[in-house]
């Protein structure tokens, strides 16, 4: 039996912890590896201190998830903390899941029920990694203005004095 990689997205929401517990109870087999993946958005200021703080906060959050995994017998856990460019967290997560070679990505979908107490139900599902596809996004083309006259891009510097001297000597 081959070891599988199960990726769980680490976020500061209860649904993320619930997805981890569901994966531990329903998906985990002996020898499987649980990858705790946290992706944090990049910040505009590009301050190294702020980036380090976000990375550290994500790692500490992942460590709290690892403590949950340690309560289960013989779990192999790895932690991945990565930065997403701009608002591309979903694209970055999908790319990392594909790069990790995951066979399962458990998710929790909150459903609003029409009960008297109007509580939220949790529907557990598993994303099939084989069908996970992120389209290649090409960078936008930058339109360059084509100059109608090719000689307009050639400029001449001052005339060389040396050139004039050579003509007079011949």
UniProtKB/TrEMBL annotation:
Concerning Gene3D superfamilies, the annotation shows: HUPs (3.40.50.620)
The superkingdom of the source organism is Eukaryota
Q: Which InterPro entries match?
A: Rossmann-like_a/b/a_fold, UspA
The UspA domain covers: 4-103
Q: Report the PANTHER family cross-referenced here.
A: ADENINE NUCLEOTIDE ALPHA HYDROLASES-LIKE SUPERFAMILY PROTEIN
The name this protein goes by in its record: UspA domain-containing protein
Q: What organism does this protein naturally occur in?
A: Acer yangbiense
């Amino acid at each position: 039996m081959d070891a599988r990689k199960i990726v769980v997205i680490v976020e500061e929401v209860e649904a993320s912890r619930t997805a981890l517990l569901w994966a531990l109870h329903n998906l985990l087999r002996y020898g499987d590896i649980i990858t705790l993946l946290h992706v944090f958005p990049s910040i505009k200021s590009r301050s190294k201190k702020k980036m380090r703080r976000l990375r550290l906060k994500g790692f500490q959050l992942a460590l709290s998830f690892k403590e949950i995994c340690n309560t289960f017998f013989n779990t192999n856990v790895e932690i991945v903390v990565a930065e997403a460019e701009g608002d591309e967290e979903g694209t970055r997560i999908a790319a990392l899941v594909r790069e990790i070679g995951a066979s399962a990505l458990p998710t929790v979908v909150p459903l609003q029920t029409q009960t008297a107490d109007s509580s939220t139900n949790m529907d557990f599902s598993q994303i099939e990694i084989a069908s996970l596809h992120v389209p290649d996004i090409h960078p936008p083309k930058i339109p360059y203005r084509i100059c109608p006259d090719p000689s307009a891009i050639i400029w001449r510097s001052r005339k060389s004095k040396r050139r004039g001297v050579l003509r007079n000597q011949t």
